[in-house]
Amino acid sequence: MSAHRTRTTAFTLNGVEVSETAPANAMAADILRDRHALTGLKIGCDQAVCGACTILVDGAPAASCATLAFTLDGKDVRTIEGLAAVGGKSAGLADGDALHPVQQAFKNNSAFQCGYCTPGMILLAVALLERNADPSRAEITEWMSANVCRCTGYQMIVEAVEAAASAMAEAAA
Amino acid sequence: MYFASHSAIAPFSLHEPKTAQEAATLIGAHPDAAFLAGGVDLVPQMRAGATVSDLVALQGVDGLNVVAADASGLTMGGGATFDQLLSDPAAAAHFPEFMQRVADIGNIRVRCAATVGGNLATRNAGYDLLPLLLAADASVRVVTPGGETPWPMPQGFVDWAPDGLIDRISIPAPDRAVLLLERRFKPVASVAMGLWHQAGRLMGRMAVGCAFDRIWTADLPEGAASLNDLAQDAADVAARMIVDLPTPADDPIASGSYRKRLIETVVRRQLESAGA
């Protein structure tokens, strides 16, 4: 059992295999923002509370500001930058650059103001709808309570998630 | 490389054991070592300056995230996340009350990262899982450098200091069990109440969190034959269950004596609702 201070971590990032050698104490947020320029991932509270830095790891929302990068080894990681193309494909659209239905719903419902929390909010909603395609309003509210928005209030965000669920159900029908 | 975004964790030596025994041996060999499970507590502490010379990452430990449930009991690996536990259909079928209480813990990001064993290892009396497990008559197995040992759940003030790795947490499935948890915020106190039948007798245990720096437990006094009897005598039984409870410290929200009365009230309500 040998100890090490650097670690090579291989994972799938927005559908692409990547390998990073970094100090063992590097955070996922730093690797993704500084080495991959994925600056849609925002650092908010920097204490794993606000959810602005949310990424999806194997489909589960994670606070990248408090996730050690080496723990991503072997995982499928998605950031907001990878969502549109994935959304286009999953929705069966011809244009791979089409917005993901959740992104489109946030846009249509004006579910953001300053936009700082929006990438995290959208990824959180995507994780919900991938797990539960038809959530109730109570389920949406409970799930989305993991992230904080200080501009809009939450009404339009909840409505956007409901609209996205409807749009995705229609696309799948 | 320059990482621009925020405060960094001090360098540490990373260990990635494959077995619980290896992990326990590593933690015993390095005085300033720490286990990394979900990291929900540990990583922010490290970023705030906590010294960890050696980090023993548990993500690769075989079998540590097991969840198994049937009519006889529920077993959780110490590395099982709350979300893994909540996603287990057998656990949901056989332990619906426990699962409902667990579902109220944290938010989805926390539940996807936080582990059952990690939650216990924090020894944080403000967390809800330990009171729940105590009230559910749980037992714990700890792996030490010397082997596997059962970790008894003591009565009274519960001060956890597992000298090793928490690798299994088990809950029995007694007859007609009831498990309740109520958390009050002004002032802060939480009470978990477990009631069950065993060999024809009504048994029970309460566990109080958030009010002290450790969990406080008390068993149900003997005498009640049924949940209905218990509900009718709830005020008297509640008074007897908290008779040895020390008075919590005063805080800016409430006096300690008020908080103690609040706890007694919560216990009474739980006993009443159990019999309803």
Largest sheet descriptor of chain B: 5 strands, antiparallel
Number of strands of chain A: 5
Taking strands numbered 1, 2, ... along the chain, how are they ordered across the largest sheet of chain B? Answer: 4-5-9-6-7
Q: What's the pLDDT, averaged over the residues of chain A?
A: 92
CATH superfamily of the largest domain in chain A: [2Fe-2S]-binding domain
Largest sheet of chain A, described in full? Answer: 5 strands, mixed
The secondary-structure class of chain A comes to alpha+beta
* Secondary-structure element order of chain A, N to C: EEHEEEHHHHH
Instruction: Give the overall silhouette of chain B.
Output: globular
Q: Count the strands of chain B?
A: 13
Q: Are there runs of chain A of 5+ residues with pLDDT below 50, and where?
A: 90-94
Strand content range of chain B: 25-35%
**Helical run tally of chain B:** 11
Helical/strand content category of chain B: alpha+beta
What is the CA-based Rg of chain B, rounded? 20 Å
Of all chain pairs, the largest interface belongs to:
A-B, 40 and 35 residues
* Uncertain residue ranges of chain B: none
Instruction: Bin the helical content of chain B.
Output: 25-40%
Percentage of residues in helical conformation of chain A:
25-40%
Q: Kindly report how far apart the N and C termini of chain A lie.
A: 53 Å
* Gross geometry of chain A: globular
Which properties best describe this structure?
heterodimer; A: 173 residues; Ubiquitin-like (UB roll); 2 domains; 5-stranded mixed β-sheet; B: 276 residues; alpha+beta; 13 strands
Description:
The complex is a heterodimer of chains A (173) and B (276). With 173 residues, chain A is an alpha+beta fold. Chain A folds into two domains: 6-82, Roll (Ubiquitin-like (UB roll)); 86-172, [2Fe-2S]-binding domain (DNA polymerase, domain 1, Orthogonal Bundle), CATH 1.10.150. Chain A is built from six helices and five strands, in the order ββαβββααααα. A five-stranded mixed sheet of chain A has the order 2-1-5-3-4, covered by helices on one side. In chain A, helix 3 packs across helix 6 (155-172). Chain B has eleven helices and 13 strands. In chain B, a hairpin with a 2-residue loop joins strand 11 (188-198) and strand 12. In chain B, 32% of the residues lie in helices and 28% in strands. Chain B has helices at 20-29, 42-47, 82-86, 89-94, 96-103, 108-113, 116-121, 129-135, 227-232, 234-241, 256-275, and strands at residues 13-15, 33-36, 54-57, 67-70, 73-77, 139-144, 147-151, 157-158, 165-172, 175-185, 188-198, 201-209, 215-219. Chain B has a five-stranded antiparallel sheet. In chain B, strands 8-13-12-11-10 form a five-stranded antiparallel sheet, sandwiched between helices. By secondary structure, chain B is of the alpha+beta class. Chain B starts with 12 loop residues before the first strand and ends with a helix. Chain B is globular, with a radius of gyration of 20 Å. At the A-B interface, helix 1, strand 4 and helix 4 of A face strand 1, helix 2, strand 3 and helix 6 of B.
